[in-house]
Amino acid sequence: MGLEKARIVFEEEKKDSALSDKANTDKNASKRIDVMFNPSSLKIKSATKYSDPKPLNTRDEKELQQLEQFLRVENDILTVELFFDTTREGANARDVRSVVKPIIDLAKAPKGGSLPPRLVFAWGDFIFPCVIASIDQSYDYFDSAGQALRATLVITFLGYDPSWKKDDAPTPAVNNEKKDTKIKDGEKPPEVAARTTGDPKDWRTIYKDKGINNPFDRNEIAGA
User: Fold this and answer.
1) Residues 189-204: what's their mean pLDDT?
2) For residue 13, what are the CA distances in angstroms to 16, 31, 109, 122?
3) How far apart are CA 45 and CA 47, in angstroms?
């Protein structure tokens, strides 16, 4: 028995042409793409996001504190390098681009959709629910007709929690009207920005929009 092939599993939407109601969309048609050669390694990156700990631009010594504020746990990132070679098919070898196209298509948002399809990268007991974040393509062997016969894809998969529903996905609290942002007493500028836009580096823009020149002047903040 040979070594099991790694695979990418996804769901393909099917619609009955006689029915136009979106409720009749069938999303249970699972499809899989087996890799041509198993990868030599799986690289996984796990990270936690913190606010910028650099000192703020101020003359007030008390405010030169290097504070790190926990923001969120980032989604795991899986990087896989896959090799494809059609030269073994002999004189009638296919253009390898036709072999890798179904994978590349999974990185694109479907027509009428806002996000690429959710996938599962699986290899033996390793299961990684994900979407494709990026694909680097390399073609390095061609026949006399100019057909590419060998390809290497470096695929970056962004993991997600399959138990989340679309409406349950966590998103930072965003206040599009920065002028309406309320600044709490003693709150640091990066903390205000993280609470407002999700990015602590936005604090300068937020304070500028509120007409505050000195983010550490409590009197100026109170009058904003």
Assistant:
1) 74
2) 10, 10, 13, 21
3) 7
| 3-state per-residue secondary structure call for 87-103 | HHHHHHCCCHHHHHHHH
Q: Which residue has the higher pLDDT, 54 or 33?
A: 33
Instruction: Give the whole-angstrom CA distance, residue 180 versus residue 177.
Output: 6
DSSP string, 19-61: ---GGG-EEEEEEEEE-SS--S--EEE--EEE---SPPS-S-G
Neighbour count for residue 18 (Cβ, 10 Å) = 6
- Looking at residue 83, its pLDDT comes to 97
Rounded Cα distance, 121 and 132, in Å: 10
Amino acid letter, residue 106: L
Which of 112, 135, 110, 151 shows the shortest CA–CA distance to 10? 110
Mean pLDDT over 189-217 rounds to: 76
**Nearest alpha carbon to residue 138 among 110, 106, 96, 178:** 96
Summarised one tens digit per residue, pLDDT across range 109-149 is 766 666 678 899 999 889 999 989 999 999 999 998 899 99
